[in-house]
Every structure is written in C-alpha cells, then in structure tokens.
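thoughts on my protein:
***
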Amino acid sequence: METIYLGIVIFLFMLAVFDLLVGVSNDAVNFMNSAVGAKVANFKTIVIVAAIGVFAGAVLSNGMMDIARHGIFQPVNFSFYEIMCILLAVMVTDVVLLDVFNTLGLPTSTTVSMVFELLGGTFILAILKIVGDETGLLTLGDMMNTEKALSVIMGIFLSVAIAFIAGTFVQYISRLIFSFNYKKNLSWTIGIFGGIAVTSLSYFMLIKGLKSAPFMTPESLAWISENTTLLVTGCFITFTLLMQILHWCRVNVFKIIVLLGTFSLALAFAGNDLVNFIGVPLAGFSAYTDYVANSNGVSIHDFMMTSLMSSAKTPAIFLFASGLVMVYALATSKKAKNVIKTSVDLARQEEGDEMFGSSALARTIVRRANNINDFLKRVIPAGMRRWIDSRFNKDEVILENGAAFDLIRAAVNLVLSGLLIIIGTTMKLPLSTTYVTFIVAMGTSLADRAWSRESAVYRITGMLSVIGGWFITAFVAFTICALVTFIMFYTSFVGMFIFIVVAVVLLVRSNIKYSKKEKAEQQDDIFKRMMASKDKNEILALLRQHVKETLTSYITFSEDTYVKVTDGFIHEDLKSLRKAMNATDDQKKMLKKRRRKELLGLRRIPITIAIEKNTWFHLGSNSCEEMLYCLKRICEPCKEHVDNNFNPISKDCVTEFLPVREELCRLMERTRTAIENNNYEEADDILAKGDALKNSISSLRKQMMNRMQEADNASLKASMVYLNILQESQELVSIWRHLLRASRFFQGDYVPQESVLLNLAESPRTV
C-alpha cells in the first residue's frame, strides 16, 4: 500500500515539473510583455534578465506552502486517502487546464487555477462526508475555507477595474508630459520620472519579491515597515540624481527602467507564485511521510491529516530545482512566446493583423465611447484640443525596429503594475500578477490612442475574451477537479491510474498539435515583414507576394471544393457536402483577415502606385469572395437534395457534365500556375478558352431546360439542382477570368487597354 502511494507522490512531483513548465509559459507574459513589446533589447537579453529574476525569486523564497496545506481545506477532518485524492485531482486538472490556455495563447492566473481546483476537490468530498455523517455534526465550514474563494473573486473584480483605470490615467498624464517624440522633452523630467520609477521598483522588490527570503529577518521587515517614509524618500532623491546623471551621460534611462522592472516582476512572480506549482506535490509528500511515520497500522481511510495544519518550510533542494526548471521553461518554451504575443498584439501602437474578431458587446462599447468622445470635443476648448493632439501626434512616435509600442509605455506598464501589487499586498487583497499586468497594458494602450476606430472593436473583443477566460478558469477548474476527485474517491487506484494516463496523453497530444500549428504559422511571415519594413519598394514587393499567395490559395481551394461538392451530389455523399460547407465558411473568415492585412500593406506603398493598383487589388479580392459565394450557392442545394434523400441525378447528365468540369478544373490550374509563376504569356489563351467554356456550359443549360419540359416529376428536383450547378459553374468561369486579369495588372507594370476595361462590365454578379 505504501509503495503505491509513494508512486503517486512521485507522479505528483513529475506533474509539478510539467506544471512549472506550462505555468511559467503562462506567467511569462506578466513580466516580459513590456520589454518584448518595446524591443528594449533582443529577446535573448530579455530572457536572461527575466531568468535571473525567476531563479533568484525561487531560491530566495522560504517556500511557505500553507495555502496548499490548510488554506482551502481543514485537514483535521480529512483522511490520508481523501487528501491524496484531492491533491492528485488538483495536479491533473491544473496541468491540463494551463496547457490548454497556453496553447490558445490566452494568459490566465495560476493562483486562481490552484485555489478553485482545491475548492472543487474539497467541496465534493465535504458534501460526501456530510451526507455520510451519521452524527450530523459536520458542516461545510468545518471542512473548507469558503472565505478564500470570495476573497479571490473580489480580488479579480478589484484588480481588473483599478488596474485599467490607473493604467489609462497614468499613461495619459505621462504622454502629455513626454509626448510621442519623448526625446525632445527629457531635459529635467527624466530624472524625476526615473527616480519615481526605480524607487517604486526597488520598494516592490523589497516588499513583494524578497519579503520571504531567508535573510529577511522579522527585525528587518519590522524596520522597513517602521521607516518606510525615510527609506522611500532617500531612495527617491538618490535615484533621481543617478538617473539624471545617466541621462547626461547619454544612457537611455527608459531601457534601464524597463529591464529593472522585468527583473523585479520576475523576482516577485517566482518568490510568491511558486506555491501554485509545487505547493500541492509538497503537501502530498508531507502527508505521505506523516502517514508512513505515524500510521502504526491505521488504515488510509482512518488516518487523519492533522499534521498539515502546521506550516512547513520547503527544503532548499526543491527551491533550487524549481528555479532551474523555471529558467529552462522560460528559455525554451514556445508557448510562452505565444502568450506574450497575445498581450503585445492587443496593446501595440500600430495597426496590424488582429487575432480576435468582433463581438456585439465590443461594438456597443465602441459606439458609446465614440458618443462620449464627440461630447468631449464639443465641451473642451479648441485651443486645448489642439495642444493635446500635438502631444498625441503618432506620426512622431519613436519605436524600435519592430516594436509594438515605445519605451514610455513599457516603463509605465512595469512601474504601475509593481505599485498596484504593492498596494494590494499592503491592503491584503489577493491581486493576481497576471490580471494586474495585463489590464494595465490594456489601459495604457487605450490612453495612447492605440485603439483606433479601425481596430478598437477587435482589441476590446480580445480583452473581453481574455477576461472572460479568467472567469471560465475558475468555473472550469472547480467543476473538473470536483468531478475528477469524485471519480477517484470511488474508483480508488484504478481511477487514479486512468486519470494519470489521460493527463499524460492529453499533454503529449497537445504539444504535438501545437508544434504542427506553429509550423503552419511560421510558413507565412510575409505580413510581419511587410509591416516592419520602412522601404516602400520592399513593402510593394512583399504585398505583391502576399496577394499572389492569397489568389493562388483561393483558386486551389475553389477547384478542390468544386470537385468535392459535385462528386458529393453525384455520389450522394452527405458527409462530404457538409465538410465542404464548413470549409467554405472557414475560408470566408480567413479571407476577411487576409484582405485586411493586404489593405494595411496597400496603405504603406507609394501613393501613386496605390492609386494605379487599387482597382486590380480590389477586383482580385472581390473575385476570391465571389468564388466562395458561388461555391456556397452550388453546395447548399446539393446538400439539401441529398439530405432529403431525393432521386439522384441521371447518368446522362453526369456523362455530359464531367468533361465540362474537367475542362474548368484544367483552366483553373493553368490560371493558378500563371499567377504563381507571375508568367502571363498564356493569359490570353486561358481567357479565350474560358470564354469558349462559358458558351459550352450555356449550351448545356439550354439542353437541360428543354429536357426538363419532357422529364417526369420523379427527376425534376435533381434536374433543378443540376441546372443550378451549370448556372453557377458559368459564373465561376467568369469570376476566375476576372481574377486572372486582376492579378496580371496588379503584379506587373502592365497598362490595360481600353477593351480590357470595357470587359470589366461583364463583372461577376454582386451578392
């Protein structure tokens, strides 16, 4: 029996390693997003600074794991078996849940995950024990700390609201002081700003990052508490003078602030959030050693866990090993970059590819904000408006190459996050590092007018999605852990073993899928290069390449889907038709994103070229959209016909249709090849044969209509669907012929003849 539980404890530590890996991937956004977003240094340097902070925070932590030992449940009323069920369920749920969020690129709170998992597991066993208690003396309050859940939930609401308002206000004031061209306004303000920033970060490290370090004795903490005003004043004067001198020596003070802020938040994260990753396994290890040493033959169901009521210090070897694992995760995790990317993209200054779509709530918020903005324009004097606008002139923004925002905003993000966490700690509010840092970044980006009318609805949707994910984390963590604990409790070792296998399989499967997804995303970095480049000729070349890939991909998709849909109708394959419908809807959403990217690129090329190419760009883009509509108009009647089990199409119709389809596909392949190779020598021949194909299809339509006059009612429905296929096939030919013309004149330096322009009157029908 002891051997089995020893195996469970070992597995808990194995899961702790996974938890550290995925947890650091998730929480890397807390302390790295500002430095990465502002390109304060290369990514390797930022990782090194953060890694030093993480390792120092982990090693200097005293490892007080009380929340996992008795912060949620009352161990005196739980047996060794029940505690092990709860702890194993918590670790299984936590690792899988965090990995899912990291894969989706959404930052979440490891603190909330662990607390609500412990609540879920404890709650279900508490209910079972109360139901089975014959004395009727046990209550829910005897077995779990319900106040902890309420304090965490209140902390969520408070941290979100306070961080957003504070971030918006402080960044607005900072921008009024420094403007976007901040290098012109640093004569004396930089010393004061640097003094406030470094003093705040230093105090943050003392109070939040090092308060639990072994060398911080109670006497030291008491002295800091009693002399806070003196300490802060002395630091402010010293650092103000130091920052001003460094500025005179032409040192970029903002970079020092951002790197110091990255280090301090990483230090605090590792020192305080380590319990979220190894607290549960250590509680399990402590419970196991207590049972082995003191059980004296008492069964696992009767040995109560009174020992967990005491506080325990984590052995130094565990802290050191945890620090190494966290540094390794930080340096190698690709999912960490994915989570950072979400936060940086939502806060970036310039427009670009939007990760999120639009939502009704976001549209309402933007509409109300625009109304408020219009009201303020009427109230604020024109002279003051002009002065404010001059401070927010984004044309003067100073961005490092490829940066999402400038150093002013990065510094405010880090300093303000540290200050808010200090305030929360002082007021004993359970503020989440994740919540504070993310929401501050959203508030500062709003103040910087980074959310234009073109992007605001997408940014707000993204922010709401992340915030919604936090609340979902709490609910899902509670529910899943409760269910897993319930099953383990009744199935004993069998259930435990099954869930261990499930957790391992899900983690392996998730990492394999993520690797495939990452490879697919790495294949298309043209847009990033296009938005980062300052050379307009290079931007034009990249835009042409991007447009070429869009057109060829949609021709390929249209050809493949056309064959699948018509085959599905001929062979009565409902599954294939449903897949084609879903794929077409997905491609419509993808086309919107690609079109927006290309429009952003079109705005960055020389204006004379943009005016010349505009018509052909929009004709090509509209043709892609029309092809998808055409496919949908073909697919819907076919799917409905097959789904209703109506009579199939006649063999005569199939025989006459297949050669037409073959010719259409052949010409589409030639079109794709011409666009792909940027070689339009055969374009006139393709267009001529396409025109001939349209005439052939027209003849088939007339024959079919004549045939329908003589057909019996049994085949009338199939004939109607077939007639629709012929009609839409004819439209499809017209569409890709326009697409070929559009690509020809967009990609090259061709000047279209008047006859070509007149032919555009034969445009695809508007839907």
Remarks:
- The chain has two domains: 2-522, 526-759.
